[in-house]
Amino acid sequence: MNKTELIEHLAGKHELTKAEAGRIVETLLDAVVTTVKKGGVVSIPGFGSFKQHARAARTGVNPSTGEKIKIAAAKLPKFTAGAGFKAAVDPKAAARKAEKAAKPTKAAKPAAKAKKK
After folding, report:
1. Residue 92: CA atoms inside 13 Å, Cβ hemisphere, count?
2. pLDDT digits (tens, 9 = 90+) for 91-107
3. What is the structure's pLDDT at 106?
4. Long-range contacts: 31-38, Cβ < 8 Å, 24+?
5. What are the tens digits of pLDDT across the range 56-81?
6. 42: confidence class by pLDDT, cuts 50, 70, 90
7. Residue 34 · residue 57 · CB < 8 Å
8. What are phi and psi of 72, to 5 degrees?
9. Which long-range contacts (CB under 8 A, 24 or more apart) does 73-82 make?
């Protein structure tokens, strides 16, 4: 689905004109971009969260010459899917995770007693 199809879907689902739906989508995207750009987090429960991720500077290798190059640090947007979104995409994985969480874990081994000399 692209942006145009999303606007058409929103307009049809909520009896809006395409222009109104387009303005809503633009406002939503602008709010997400502005917040993440400022270093904030946009969290939508059940869907996921958008945040800024800092990648440290590092040394890379030019594959054609083998020469070492410096790669600058960068700030990148990052999306983390929420539990509801993950469950909708892969219900079997969500069921396995829920099953695993329900199982009791083994108790930790008691600390070894210090030996007397």
Report:
1. 0
2. 888 788 778 877 766 65
3. 63
4. 36/77
5. 999 999 999 999 999 999 999 999 99
6. very high
7. no
8. -70, 155
9. 76/52, 77/36, 77/50, 77/51, 77/52, 77/53, 78/50, 78/51, 78/52, 78/53, 79/48, 79/49, 79/50, 80/48, 80/49, 80/51, 81/47, 81/48, 82/44, 82/45, 82/46, 82/47, 82/48, 82/49
Domains of the chain: 3-99 (4.10.520.10)
The reported pTM is 0.71
pLDDT at 103 (0 to 100):
73
